[in-house]
Amino acid sequence: MLVPISFALLALxxxxxxxxxxxxxDPVDGVLSLVVTMLALAGIYLQLADPVVAALQVIVYAxxxxxxxxFVTMFVRRAEERGPLGxxxxxxALASIVAACLLGLLVQAIGAFGGNTxxxxxxxxxxxxxxxxxxxxFLYPFELVSALLLVAMVGVVVLGRRGEESS
Amino acid sequence: MPHSIDSLxxxxxxxxxxxxxxxxxxxxxxxxxxxxxxxxDLFFIRGKGKRQGPLEMVVLAGxxxxxxxxxxxxxxxxxxxxxxxMVVDPFSSFFxxxxxxxxxxxxxxxxxxxxxxxxxxxxYYTLAVGSVLGMMLMASxxxxxSIFISVEFVSLASYVMAGFVRGDRRSSEASLKYVLYxxxxxxxxxxxxxxxxxLTGTTSLIEANQVLYASxxxxxxxxxxxxxxxxxxxxxxxxxxxxxxxxxxxxxxxxPVTAFFTVAPKAAGFALLSRFLVTLLSNPSTSPxxxxxxxxxxxxxxxxxxxxxxxxxxxxxxxxxxxxxxxLAYSSIAHVGFVLMAVSTLSPEGLHAIIVYMAAYLVMNLGxxxxxxxxxxxxxxxxxxxxxxxxNDAPMLVVAMVVFLYSLTxxxxxxxxxxxxxxxxxxxxxxxxxxxAIGAVNxxxxxxxxxxxxxxxxxxxxxxxxxxxxxxxxxxxxxxxLAAVTLVFGVPWGAFxxxxxxxxxxxxxx
Lengths: 167, 510
Fold this sequence. Notes:
The structure holds two protein chains of two kinds.
Chain A: H1 2-23, H2 27-47, H3 51-76, H4 89-113, H5 125-135, H6 139-166
Helix pairs in contact in A: 1-2, 2-3
Chain B: H1 7-21, H2 25-43, H3 54-74, E1 79-81, E2 86-88, H4 90-111, H5 121-140, H6 144-162, H7 169-200, H8 205-214, H9 219-237, H10 246-252, H11 255-281, H12 299-319, H13 324-345, H14 348-379, H15 395-409, H16 415-429, H17 433-459, H18 473-488, H19 494-503
Antiparallel strand pairs in B: 1-2
Helix pairs in contact in B: 2-3, 2-5, 3-4, 4-5, 4-11, 4-14, 5-6, 5-11, 6-7, 6-11, 7-8, 7-9, 7-10, 8-11, 9-11, 10-11, 10-13, 11-13, 11-14, 12-13, 12-17, 13-14, 13-16, 13-17, 14-15, 14-16, 14-18, 15-17, 15-18
């Protein structure tokens, strides 16, 4: 029963984050809720026994992309909209619940090791498998993405230069 | 371990990859053209004295070379390349040619328009040719991963192209709307794909088809996934009820871009939609040339209803328009309805009808847009009220325009008639009478608004006014040439028929 409970918790967290993203007025709150969703998704990937995808999810989405989102939203937000971060009661309660969920997961995850430290000689098999399919079976779409990024980059140049001219 | 890395299998897959690269020469040429545009602009065109010409030459040369390569590969054996990531078959080659020809006309229409500053042309052509690469891949992809990447390829380039005119609010608004609606539709498409992957355990459509025919335990989930995919693709081709972004984007975008958008990405969307439906859902055990389809749901009926709604709303929307770009935008929605009518027949003959219709639409619609661009140079306006009596000012151009409008209506003898003829013939052969009837009524409605334009051009008196420029010589000769093509190929030709019938050959991996 352990797995379904932790799945339910993660799913609730992911859904809650997504709902908060929709209903929060402040864009910064929205982005922070999205971080919760992304982390919960990483937990679900981990549970599906895919630690590599979970790690990528944390590094790329919850990490890099969310920092970028946060940076941009804070940057473009007008000064008068910025109020002090209030710690009213419902918000505190919600934060406590989320923190408790995360703590529960952490405890469960540590418990699962049962005191054993994992020993991996060399890269884990999953990484080799991912590399093999990424650069074998899916080499063509992988290369296609690089061409796509080139076109996207040119698009960014076009949009960026427009801002320069109007200012 | 299933994925052990031994050097032997690695070498084999490298050899297969290199072998596959040799099969996609047109795509490689287009990729090189993208790079060539960037490099030529960087190293050979310097300073403020930018002139029109060198970049256009690069693009036209690239498109020409790719066209020759496409033609050379046209008669080749249908085959899958890069595993089953994409296929090369007469169907994909035909659509490649449509995209490349549309790009050639797009370059000419950009050259005669002053909407795009010469200094910005290199980014502009990079995006356009990049989107063409995406379209070529869309027409040949048979794997959900490569389909999604190629769709995004076209979308990303289109978003920026729609908002290319600096400081123009309409253009920026068009771009923003396009980005928002487009991203949502991409997400919907991807969501559908994730369900399909979950159901079949593979991203390859060819393998998914075999899995589904072996067992289909969750028909409702499959239905849900397919509805999402069709909604996502429906957005890209602007079919009702996913069409509402189209008129605003087409009106706001620079006119040459609008002309390009109404033809090339739509053709790519139809190629992808037809290939997706047939590859995924047709019964693998039936003989070629006859398809039966999976599922308890009546697919032809669903697509048929979309077709009927699309052509009707498009035509009624076009009735009230006085802006030519908006009018042609609604008319393009109506034409999407007619092509969907062919998709709904889900047969090789229907595929043939799609091919003929798209070829016809390429010529007549780009022709009509060429005239709109030329008139905009002369009068500075795309408003229908400024079209009065232009027959006295530019007779040849107006004659060409009347031919295009005639063909868009679908009257014989013209390419447009030929396209409609095949669509109706197949619909009637399958005895889908209600759809044929709605199509016929819509053709009559279309007659009204197309001839309103013709009437303004020919029968109204020319008003005294300030001209903003001259009609470009190139526009007149090019549109007359296209008008001639419209009429000459409007008579059924044996050779044309043979080429288009052969183009309806799909590689289905069996």
